[in-house]
Write a structure and sequence with these properties.
about 170 residues, FAS1 domain, 7-stranded mixed β-sheet, 7 helices, globular, binds 2-acetamido-2-deoxy-beta-D-glucopyranose, Adhesion/Biosynth-related
Length: about 170
């Protein structure tokens, strides 16, 4: 009885504070130019990524001008096509903020990487803990098979590499 009431109150608090018009709607917010978050807002096409950052409390990280990292940033289309191909619904993903955080941290390498520094095959440890593989051939540069479609976007001390798909860490079950 008591537990039930507590659960109800918790449910009410959560429902009251987090309201999304659709699973991945995004509200723009002011942040200083040049941060990763600001650059993503300026480039458009990253509203899904910014919403996922919000859900997983990583917005502050993307607004941190002292940060010196590489963000492999998936476009809106890249995220939706990857989820569709894997038969994963957006609403299933956004429900689990821990999962969202693991996925996003798998897109961040804790050092700035320019594409000129890549050799044919490279392995980088991400904030999530697992490695991503960057390969380079005559066609282009690929991260776990997804192409870097916009290279070396500067954001303070960090670098954004735009990719056309969502990187899912190994061993993750959605
Ligand atoms: C960021 O720069 C854009 C133009 O590049 C400008 O329109 C905008 O007002 C600036 N935002 C801030 C917070 O300085
Ligand atoms: C950005 O969004 C526009 C409009 O939705 C689309 O036409 C374009 O292909 C997108 N670009 C990328 C790189 O995803
Ligand atoms: C998420 O976005 C809302 C509205 O845009 C904002 O009030 C809130 O502080 C954001 N949360 C985080 C963790 O950034
Ligand atoms: C911003 O990043 C720097 C460098 O990683 C870190 O020392 C600092 O604590 C971060 N600030 C916030 C508010 O997270
Ligand atoms: C996709 O998921 C739905 C619901 O879980 C299921 O009914 C459907 O069979 C799945 N399709 C494929 C191609 O895996
Ligand atoms: C994000 O912050 C909210 C509110 O503080 C918390 O309920 C939630 O568990 C946090 N999510 C993650 C992934 O840290
Ligand atoms: C959220 O995702 C994590 C990582 O995949 C998983 O360990 C956890 O069980 C999930 N939580 C829920 C409530 O599904
Ligand atoms: C992961 O990448 C790091 C370099 O960032 C490398 O030292 C390590 O051997 C890699 N681990 C695996 C399992 O590939
Ligand atoms: C380059 O690598 C990508 C990703 O692995 C692959 O799809 C493409 O076919 C490769 N191109 C060539 C010319 O080998």
């Amino acid at each position: 009885m008591y537990v039930k009431a507590l659960c109800f109150i918790l449910l009410f608090v959560v429902a009251g504070t987090v309201t999304y018009a659709s699973p991945l709607s995004y509200t723009s917010r002011a942040s200083s130019n040049d941060t990763i978050a600001a650059e993503l807002e300026k480039m458009k096409n990253f509203t899904t990524l910014l919403t996922l950052a919000n859900i997983s409390n990583l917005t502050g990280t993307l607004e941190n001008a002292s940060l010196s990292v590489t963000l492999f940033a998936p476009t809106n289309d890249g995220i939706s096509s990857t989820l569709k191909a894997a038969n994963i619904s957006e609403s299933a993903v956004v429900k689990n903020s821990t999962l969202v955080k693991m996925i996003l941290e798998y897109h961040i390498v804790p050092q700035p990487l320019k594409t000129s520094s890549f050799s044919a095959v490279n392995s980088f440890k991400t904030l999530e803990g697992s490695n991503i593989t960057v390969t380079k051939n005559n066609t282009g540069i690929f991260v776990n098979g997804f192409e870097i479609i916009k290279m070396n976007v500067k954001a303070d001390k960090s670098i954004i590499q735009v990719i056309d798909g969502l990187l899912i860490p190994p061993g993750i079950v959605v």
